[in-house]
Write a structure and sequence with these properties.
The protein is an all-alpha fold. The chain folds into 4 domains: 29-150, Alpha Horseshoe (Serine Threonine Protein Phosphatase 5, Tetratricopeptide repeat); 191-317; 332-379, Arc Repressor Mutant, subunit A (Orthogonal Bundle), CATH 1.10.10.10; 395-471, no CATH class. The protein is built from 22 helices and 3 strands. β2 (368-371) and β3 (376-379) form a beta hairpin. The longest helix has 40 residues, at 3-42. The radius of gyration is 43 Å and the shape is elongated. Pfam families: PCI. This is COP9 signalosome complex subunit. Residues 1-29 are annotated as: Disordered.
Amino acid sequence: MSDDDFMQDSDQEEYDFEYEDADEDEAGDVGIENKYYNAKQIKADNPEEAINEFSEIPALEEEKGDWGFKGLKQAIKLEFKLGRYEDQCAQAVEHYRELLTYIKSAVTRNYSEKSINNMLDYIEKGSDDAKAYHCMEKFYSLTLDSFQNTNNERLWLKTNIKLARLWLDRRENSTTLEHKRLKALYQRALTVRSAVPHPKIMGIIRECGGKMHLSEENWKEAQSDFFESFRNYDEAGSMQRIQVLKYLVLTTMLMKSNINPFDSQETKPYKSDPRISAMTDLVDAFQRDDIHAYEEILRNNPDVLSDPFIAENIDEVSRNMRTKAVLKLIAPYTRFSLAFISKQIKISLPEVQDILSFLILDQKIPDATIDQETGAVVINRADDHERLQALGTWTSQLNSLWRSVLTNADGFRIEDSARIHATLVNTDGGYGQLGLAGDVLPSPEFRKLGVGRAKRDWKGKSGIAKAFSRAL
């Protein structure tokens, strides 16, 4: 055998050996792949067995790879769906902890980022009770710990935003005194400019900001953030846009604004949406100051208050409506009873007294007193006293003007006044009944109508005119 023939035989043997190893690897991969797809087929009918099948896949791989990563993903989703988070969500959390070990080397960065983000979205949508929220918080914490030392700012931001939103939804920003931390996180999130942000992410950021501003009673900033959140959710096609639109309507009422939130180009298509119709009617009644229509809408649409955030803040809107209704109702009265207000506006007596006390202290009803024994309210109208003072000043100025015109003008002289006075004194009734001084003529009617007719006209004047004449 020649050297060339020997080398050819050696090459063939080596090639055959490598091919046999590849066949063995492929056979192993096929077995794992078959196990994965078999588990997927039975997960609808037998989820417990499917979880066991998915959980066994990582152990079948000699090195961590795609199939183990996929198997753990499916197992976690099924465990969460079945509610396997009773004991501090131990099983789902442990599998998620194992899943996070794959992101460093077993799978690519983009694939792992997308998979984990989808996993967190799935868990968020499936959480509907306190235990699920607690488990979800553990998932977020594990994710942040895992990515703390990596330069993956995008996933860090998304996870932190989800955690911030969870705290807001659970109202833990007030119970755990973490509101300051959440606000700092919100401001930091707005400054991230690593790439073009996804509109859904911006929607979540703005929604968190709107809720924080609303808790601080910063209505204007809250309205701006909720509008931006709605616009971003709408662009992303997220159903959360409906809920945020309700928050926008709520903020408009808290601002006491007369601008209809559905007048903008972005919100106008949703004005007739049945999911938002109750809020549309509510803001319409609010802007018309129709307290009865407002209360009726709330009674007939209990689903409006199903959102804890709306239920917490709608009380402020209701109080504003009732306060305006009380002011409008008592406007013509100086004395009324608490029972009268309660009957007309259909609110309790303690609430009526509370609203009136607030209005008195706020100087909306000055110089008013509440008699708690009789339930009567008395208002001392300062404006009546001021009106009488102004009328007295006006009368005095008219008197001065009258004297100047009749004394110094060319139409009458002192001697003319004396002559007319003498004539009136000799006439029946005399001048004295009018209560006028002899050197003062009541009006130019004496020149136009004659003295006799003027006397008759003045005798026929009303009591107000006579009193006015006496004052002069």
